[in-house]
Specification:
23% strand, 6-stranded mixed β-sheet, alpha/beta, 31% helix
C-alpha cells in the first residue's frame, strides 16, 4: 500500500459464483486530488472492479484501504455514480440531493442548507425546486453528482457517468466536471472513472490504468502529462490515444 494513498487495492481478485475468475492480482492506488481512469475491452470486469473498490461487492481475495484504514463494508466515504441517471421523478432536485443526508443526524434546516450549497457547486443554483421531468439529461446528472457529493465522500467512483447523455451535453459536462469535483468546497480527495470513451478518459485523467486478459489484470499505466483544458487536436492527445489502443489489443 503506497504511503499517502487515498484509496488502494492490494492484490484483489474476484470470482463469480459460477467459478469464472473475472480479474486477479489487481493493485491500484489513488493520490490526493488525483483523477484515475480504468479502461479495457467490454466485459473485462471494469464495473465489477469499481464496485469491489467501494466494497459494494467484497473482493474474493485481497484487501481495500481508504486513507490507510481497511475497508470491510460499504462506506459513505466512498460514493458511486451509476451509468443510469438515478433521480427519483417524484422528488425535486433538492429532495433528491437530501437523500444522501438521511440518517446522518442533520436537522431539516441543515439538510436543506447542505443540499442547496451542493446544487450550487454543480451549477444548479435556482433549480432546487425543479422535478426531473423539467430538467435536461445534463441537469439530472448534475443532481446525481450533487447527491453523491452531499454525503461528504473522500472518493468518488464513476461508472460511465456520461454514457446516456447526448454528445453535446456530455462534452459540456466533461469540460466542467474536473473543477466541480475538486472544488475547495467538496471533501473529495480522489476520483476513479470507468469509461469506454477514450477521448473522455484523456480529457479528464491524471492517470489511466488499462485492463486486459482473462482473468483480467492491469497491463499498462499511463501518466497523462498535459495541461487542462485538453484538446483532442493536440498531437500529444493523439499519441496517448495510440498508446492506449496498443495496450487494448487482444492478449494472446
Amino acid at each position: 500500500m503506497p504511503i499517502g494513498a487515498i484509496l488502494s487495492a492490494v492484490d484483489i481478485s474476484y470470482i463469480f459464483p459460477s467459478g469464472k475468475e473475472v480479474f486477479t492480482g489487481i493493485n491500484i492506488s489513488t493520490g490526493e486530488n488525483e483523477f484515475v481512469s480504468i479502461v479495457g475491452p467490454s466485459g473485462i470486469g471494469k464495473s465489477t472492479l469499481l464496485r469491489t473498490l467501494g466494497y459494494l461487492i467484497p473482493p474474493t481475495s485481497g484487501r481495500v484501504f481508504l486513507m490507510g484504514q481497511e475497508v470491510k463494508k460499504p462506506s459513505s466515504k466512498i460514493s458511486l455514480i451509476h451509468q443510469s441517471i438515478a433521480t427519483f421523478p417524484w422528488m425535486t432536485a433538492i429532495d433528491n440531493v437530501k437523500l444522501a443526508l438521511i440518517g446522518k443526524g442533520f436537522s431539516q434546516d441543515e439538510m436543506n442548507d447542505t443540499a442547496r450549497k451542493t446544487l450550487e457547486t454543480v451549477g444548479l443554483k435556482g433549480a432546487e425546486g425543479l422535478y426531473p421531468k423539467e430538467m435536461s439529461g445534463g441537469m439530472r446528472q448534475r443532481v446525481a453528482i450533487a447527491r453523491a457529493l452531499a454525503g461528504s465522500p473522500e472518493v468518488l467512483l464513476m461508472d460511465e457517468p456520461f454514457v446516456h447523455l447526448d454528445e453535446l451535453t456530455a462534452e459540456g459536462l466533461r469540460q466542467e466536471i474536473y473543477d466541480i469535483l475538486f472544488n475547495p468546497l467538496t471533501t473529495l480527495k480522489s476520483v476513479v472513472l470507468v469509461s469506454h470513451n477514450l477521448d473522455e478518459v484523456l480529457e479528464l485523467s491524471d492517470r489511466v490504468l488499462i485492463m486486459n486478459g482473462s482473468p483480467a489484470k492491469i497491463v499498462d499505466e499511463l501518466i497523462i502529462e498535459m495541461p487542462r483544458p485538453r484538446s483532442t487536436r493536440d498531437s500529444r492527445f493523439s499519441a496517448y490515444l495510440d498508446k492506449i489502443y496498443a495496450s487494448l489489443t487482444p492478449v494472446r
